[in-house]
Amino acid sequence: MKERYTVSPAPHLHDNxxxxxxxxxxxxxxxxxxxxxxxxxxxxLLWLTLLGILAAVGTEALIQWLRKVPIRVSDxxxxxxxxxxxxxxxxxxxxxxxxxxxxxxxxIGKQVFGGLGNNPVNPALLGRAFLLASWPALMxxxxxxxxxxxxxSMSGIDPRIIDPNLQAVSGKAYELVTxxxxxxxxxxxxxxxxxxxxAATRDASLDLSNRIFNGMLDLGTLKNLFWGQxxxxxGEVSVFALLLGAVYLLxxxxxxxxxxxxxxxxxxxxxxxxxxxxxxxxxxxxxxFHLFSGGLLLGAFFMAxxxxxxxxxxxxxxxxxxxxxxxxxIIRLVGGYPEGVSYSILFMNVMTPLIDILTRPKAFGRSxx
Length: 369
Prior knowledge:
The protein is mostly helical. The chain has helices at residues 19-41, 44-66, 77-87, 96-107, 123-134, 136-140, 159-162, 166-169, 171-179, 182-190, 192-196, 202-216, 219-227, 239-251, 258-274, 285-292, 296-303, 314-334, 341-358. The chain folds into 3 domains: 19-144, no CATH class; 159-219, no CATH class; 255-358, no CATH class.
């Protein structure tokens, strides 16, 4: 008697994972970063995050009710969107900013396309892009970045590392070091017009800018970046906290290693080759500075790996990650914004369907023809 086989649609292999399981595990992995942010900046950060979450969940439930579909907000997807959106704003933001951003992220970035699993781009990043276009001063202005409760500068650089008499050299230069986030400072130092205004002669200004830039690469500064003693967005505060969450997600196999690995590797290589100022030369601390600064780790581990908006093929994930890294470096080094993570991921989200088509593996038993 011949053996009979059952033919059925995919998937053929099952495990214990589910949408709620994945979403709530990612939320759990993000809690260390929130804890560090509250430690450095106070309890107000917790309320901002809760406002973003409540706005996202409320918008999801309202639109599902209007669409006359089952109201499902317990899967954690709206909670995660509201949390990630709030992680991308300044600690000094007004209370309404995460609310408006979360409403836009859910309504326009998710529900307008049919809800969970149908959105072409990451809703939280789309919400951040909307806030950046609508209120750029609140999203990028130096005056909005709040200093942690330490004696260091917002950029994480101790001005004494650069020059004990820096304030005597130029009050504007001192303000530049103590008032900017690391990436804001790096972008400003590349602006020759601004740098030339720091000193009386071009040679003096270049020398000063190089000393400030080298101060950014000091091991003490990198230590501040690692622990979170810097100015920046809520979710960027601590590399250590983000890595804790990333290790947890990798251990639980919630995310796959290819996207964050090739994303970070691309940024590392390109910033090592092209990330310096004229006269600063090559340094291994330079790409480490770029890896630790801004929202790169938050984007690489928690947003670029979104199931719906990233490729499903293994080779496609590599192409996607390299594209994210390339665009991030281009925006950081020559673009108009100091940070390029959000826009790079959004652009590659749009490219995901094409990447999946181009990297689709050959069906078993069939020729290329």
